[in-house]
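Anyone? Bumping this.
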Amino acid sequence: MVSSFTHPIILGLLWATILISIATSMSTAEQSPLESEAKAVLESGWWNGYSNDTSQRCKWPGISCNFAGIITEIDLSDRGLGGNIPPGIGDLSALEYLDLSNCDLSGELPTSLGNLSLLHFLGLSRNYIHGPIPSALGQLTNLRTLSLAGNQINGSIPSALGQLTNLQILNLAYNQLEGSIPSALGQLTNLQYLYLYDNQLEGSIPQEIEKLKNLRVLAITNNSFIGHDIPLLLCHLTKLEHINLGLNQFTGSIPSCLCNLEALFSLYLSQNRLIGSIPSCVGNLYNLTFLDLHSNQLQGSIPSDIGNLEALISLDLSQNRLNGSIPSQIAMLHRLSELNLTFNQLSGYVPNLYATKLLIVDNSNDCYKIYPDPFEGNKALSPCMNSLVTNNATNNKSPPYIKICLPIAIFYTFSILGCLFFSRVKANNKPAGGRPTKNGDICSIWNYDGKIAYEDIIAATEDFDFRYCIGVGGYGSVYRAQLPCGKVVALKKLHRLEAENPAFDKSFRNEIKFLTEIRHRNIVKLHGFCLHRRSMFLIYEYMEKGSLFYNLRDEVEAVEMDWTKRIEIIKGMAHVLSYLHHDCTPPIVHRDISSNNVLLNSSFQAFVADFGTARMLDLDSSNHTILVGTRGYIAPELAYTMVVTEKCDVYSFGVVALETLMGKHPEEVLSWLPSPSSLVNTKLIDVLDNCLPLPTSQLVAQNLVHVATLIFACLNQRPKLRPTMKEVCKEFLSRQTSLNVPLRMISLFQLVKHEMHIGESSDTCNV
Ligand SMILES: *[C@@H]1O[C@H](CO)[C@@H](O)[C@H](O)[C@H]1NC(C)=O
Ligand SMILES: *[C@@H]1O[C@H](CO)[C@@H](O)[C@H](O)[C@H]1NC(C)=O
Ligand SMILES: *[C@@H]1O[C@H](CO)[C@@H](O)[C@H](O)[C@H]1NC(C)=O
Ligand SMILES: *[C@@H]1O[C@H](CO)[C@@H](O)[C@H](O)[C@H]1NC(C)=O
Ligand SMILES: *[C@@H]1O[C@H](CO)[C@@H](O)[C@H](O)[C@H]1NC(C)=O
Ligand SMILES: *[C@@H]1O[C@H](CO)[C@@H](O)[C@H](O)[C@H]1NC(C)=O
Ligand SMILES: *[C@@H]1O[C@H](CO)[C@@H](O)[C@H](O)[C@H]1NC(C)=O
Ligand SMILES: *[C@@H]1O[C@H](CO)[C@@H](O)[C@H](O)[C@H]1NC(C)=O
Ligand SMILES: *[C@@H]1O[C@H](CO)[C@@H](O)[C@H](O)[C@H]1NC(C)=O
Ligand SMILES: *[C@@H]1O[C@H](CO)[C@@H](O)[C@H](O)[C@H]1NC(C)=O
């Protein structure tokens, strides 16, 4: 341990000495690298008012240095720097990482950026940068991520970018770029993500694109690209998962070879001038989740093989010239929750749909209708369904977690990501609230007989009579409702006034978005929702015991919750968070873990609820945030960094877990943590919930100490030093050493210093 630590330090010092001596020897002739670096940071003005003492620059905010004291990373994202990118930036020749996203920067991109030859990350998105992309950027051959999205950059894409052969992410979206895609981009054989949407690019897609064998995302929507037969070359890019060519001027037909792209999750070809029919082989795309071909001139009938697309969540074929009848196989699509076949020339009858996710609101006179009507504008079509398909089998057919998380990733790529990029623009124009959803009002209840509808909910609660109310919060009330089938559900209903508040509306929709797609045995299940302006409610699995907060404070329940149950509750929460952070791509952060948002079923199993503020952490979007969460549970760094990371949840988890052991909010203990020496005189047993007798079993005592050690690691003031939730879960499984000190002797100080946990993998908490 000791030797492995000192080694790099000695090496580093050696290097520093060598470098400094080189630097001094050079300084006679011209300015040394260190001097020009100091000059560059001073001239940038970005640390003005912070310090003028450049010798201390490695300690300035957003700067990281190597052992030689040379700057290697600058991350000032989300700080309102204003001003320009100074040409002197090119003198920071050791820079590997430069993130100035969302910094209110204006001016042009200086050519000297091309001197930063070690750079592997360059993020300048969401600023007010104008002018061209300098060809000199082509010299940054180590670059893996280049993001200039959301600026006012004009001119054409320089061919020189083709030299960036290590590039994995190229994001030039939402600028004013013109001209065509240079064929040299075909040399970017490592490229995985290509975002060029919302520009004024034109011409056809160059043949060379077919060399981008690693491409997973191609998003070039909202340009003026042309091309006949949706470029056949895409058929060679077999790793493509998301194709968005919408809102361009592509002509010709959809080639059947697209059906070979087996990894495809979303295909958006809407708002082009496509003719011909939908290839029947589309049924081969087993992973296809979003299919949007709306506003083209497609003819012929809807292929019946569309019924093979088991993963399909959204199908939009509206505004085409499709004729014939709607294939009854559509009824097989049990995950479908958005369907739009409006304004075609469809005839015959609407098939009896699998109505679990698409709610049927009007079921009078044996005529079932979906609202809003996805069949409107088809003159020869009878819009009535005479019965509904229900199938109990699908409930058990829960797909593996990762598969369920992926659809969110797509939503994210194409809608949320867009919203994030433009949030600033929008914020200036409109009050908060996000884009109006495509469907406006929707109601959807599933898992049960599709006939259970709005009316049953109203009947079960006598129109939300207060007698059925089991809780009231700032947003609205929670009701308990027994459905005609006997099943008891919980309803969370927004108060009328709150329903008109865009913030509550947004949080409701956010909750729906997450809970419909993520599944975990310790995450509360959503059975349905109703988003009528008149009445907005969510329908959940009913949790007999209510919140953890309530149970800890109820004399009877608190005693019922013995140490073993409490440890199980803590483990249940940890598993959920580990799942959200590590098994979902992109990772999901809950952001509001509190004892109120952890519910217990009748056997005291913990269920995490309330995803109203949850969000995804994406590779290339800002993780900047406004402060949300519950007071007393929010990680201390959030207040000043405003950057959300998984580690914020880890801290909140620590607070709830400690509260579970203490039986009350650990306010006082938390206030001692910044100066741990104050913990020397506090024993663990002094803070444990005195509703419960101390554990008599040595094993339980040992578990308690083990869990408490992990909790204090999670409460570390410095986010980087907190373990990840995955590490926490791994720790739960690790072999423990037995306690060699009596429980009553153990102080909080020892727990904070990990002195009590000397197990084999104790290092994981020290990372
Ligand atoms: C840095 O120098 C400038 C001008 O030399 C001065 O106005 C400013 O107050 C100084 N800032 C600090 C923090 O010393
Ligand atoms: C830095 O960039 C400028 C402008 O591109 C160039 O003139 C100069 O030679 C470069 N300096 C070095 C050390 O590469
Ligand atoms: C880019 O925009 C500027 C104005 O911001 C304009 O003067 C310049 O001609 C534009 N360049 C191109 C290539 O369109
Ligand atoms: C298309 O992109 C431009 C920016 O280049 C943007 O202003 C416009 O809103 C986009 N159109 C749509 C429909 O998204
Ligand atoms: C379909 O999706 C699953 C889950 O993401 C993935 O494992 C599988 O490889 C995909 N199929 C293809 C052909 O890419
Ligand atoms: C659908 O349209 C195609 C041509 O547009 C025509 O050949 C075919 O007969 C039509 N089918 C029906 C059922 O109307
Ligand atoms: C269907 O899409 C059209 C635009 O193509 C939109 O105006 C309409 O509201 C959508 N209807 C449904 C039911 O989603
Ligand atoms: C659905 O469940 C009912 C009773 O729960 C059963 O009678 C029926 O056979 C099931 N249907 C299918 C398709 O499994
Ligand atoms: C409580 O939840 C756990 C985990 O989902 C489950 O295994 C258990 O059966 C539930 N208990 C009851 C009584 O429903
Ligand atoms: C946001 O967080 C995720 C997960 O930690 C990370 O992969 C991503 O790089 C972050 N984004 C930025 C722009 O820092």
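Late reply, but here is one note on the structure posted above: The chain has 16 helices and 36 strands.
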